[in-house]
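Summarise what follows for lecture notes:
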Amino acid sequence: MHIYIVMGVSGVGKTTIGRLLSEKFTLPFFDADDFHPLRNVEKMKNGIPLQDEDRKIWLQTLSEKIRSWNESTGAVLACSALKEKYRKQLQSVPDKDISWIFLHSAQEVILNRLSSRKGHYFKPELLESQFLTLEIPQYGIHIDVNKSVEKIMEEIMEKISNEKEKSQIGLLGLGVMGRSLAINLATRGVKVAVYNRHVENIEVDIAKSFASENKSIYDFPWFDELEAFVNSLERPRNILLMVNAGKAVDLVIESLLPLLDKDDLIIDGGNSHYKDTVRRENYLEENGFLFMGTGVSGGEEGARKGPSIMPGGPAKAYNRVGDYLEKIAARDKAGNSCCTYIGPDGAGHFVKMVHNGIEYGEMQLIAEIYNYLRFHTGSTPEEIAALFEEWNAEIQSYLLEISVDILRKKEKNEFLIDKVLDAAKQKGTGGWSTNAALELGVPFDTITAAVMARNISGKKEERKAAEEEYQPTPSKEGNLQEISESLFKAYKAASIINHSIGFDLMGEASKEYKWSLNLSEIARIWTNGCIIRSAFMEELIDILKESPLENILMHPDIQIRIKDSKPELAGAVGDALKHGFPVPVLSAAANYLMSFISGQSSANMIQAQRDYFGAHTYERVDKERGEYFHTEWKPGKE
């Protein structure tokens, strides 16, 4: 049911208008003054202004009543609600279920009304304190009451009618993800308006066609004119951008700014760089607007049925649109939304960037193992698919699941995988995560190796020319059955290491940027809807809850698994390289592990070299940490 709250200082006519609205909508009417405790009433009778402490129990009572009315009959409530924090406390129901009607006028107009009012305990001399307390809302219906009651009601009803026709959220950009998210929102009862630019011979009637294609099920208000799109939205406005990362986002923002009002919110749902998100948020905040960088993972199907969503930005922005985002997200095993507030400024896009980095590593792992099995053992795609399906009964990886489907797909009785060009692309997030790791000083072996593997795959012509010159002779004498068990153990170990590297980067970023990331909660929202969901991700929820500040590889249960699989990981790397097959991510995982568990590394030689040629100094094992030394290493020099 719906709640109408008629607000404003005393004397604006809240009770009169509230009663008329209750008759109009056949809803019960309540006056907030009737819920004040006796001591508050006595204070006001004696001309003593109420303090926040006085209002505490009163506001709590009203909040509970509003929730109860919303669940039963609906209601019209007359309540001063002068401060934003009071209104926030009263907002105990979703935004869509409550309408604020702000009655106002000049102070002298209201004072004249109060002076002529009889039989009310409110003293006219308290009016000045109310005007000083009043924080004008930047939302709702605003009505100047310096007119007849009939005219006031006419304006209110007209504005209520207009508000009912407005959309709760606007989606800008109807590419694959935008279209799917629009349908997802509409499916879950969110009124969404859609916009796509109209460019002759390039993007023609995109929004119109989308609305037409879905009109039998959904009513999408569609626009290809930006100002009309913005004006179609409830205020404060919520606009979700689904455009390509980079300059396009800035151009859209600049085109929107002249059309927006204070506290309107722009949500960037693309794969933007987290530093761009920080910059945009600061820029918009300076101009009185809100901005959220929101990662969305799940591809086209996830966007349509329920993705994993990673919103970052001001907490107050998430509080406003969190309900919408949580509605459209996937659900975890407990039925909770795979969407959570990640943290301030660029946290949401940073976490999505790392998600994609882990994804790069997992995809490359599968590709390496497929390639090794296919050409070392001579196994068919169907045989490898059967093996992957067997493995996936245990690990329940979405990426391994889709790999099974890929390997079984045929076109004209031939395996389609053999028709796919072996030159991979990347959108940038993998490379960005590598750069972030370098900036933060975090090892990033597997993900960096996966990015570089894609880069070298793109040099198809050079690779073909090099093959002709070098004439490599990879071994084709392997046996699928003989190596599958050890290879599976190597794969699982490498996958654990790849995940630990990604989560380690997020932990370091959280400390550096003071984001207070909840890594366990991030793992939870990655258990469904997203590309890297798996049984291991389910385990990580508890592992990261138990040891949130510790590297995943140090958890006792993980140590047992890694110790058990370490020989197979090293062996798989050695065998693959010996037989002529590159395995960059498997190799990177093995090298990372060996470095991670080595109390003595080779870095002492590096430090000595740096000191030799550059006098960079070094620390000594026989001295206190933080004490630095320089040596003249060249013979004959002291």
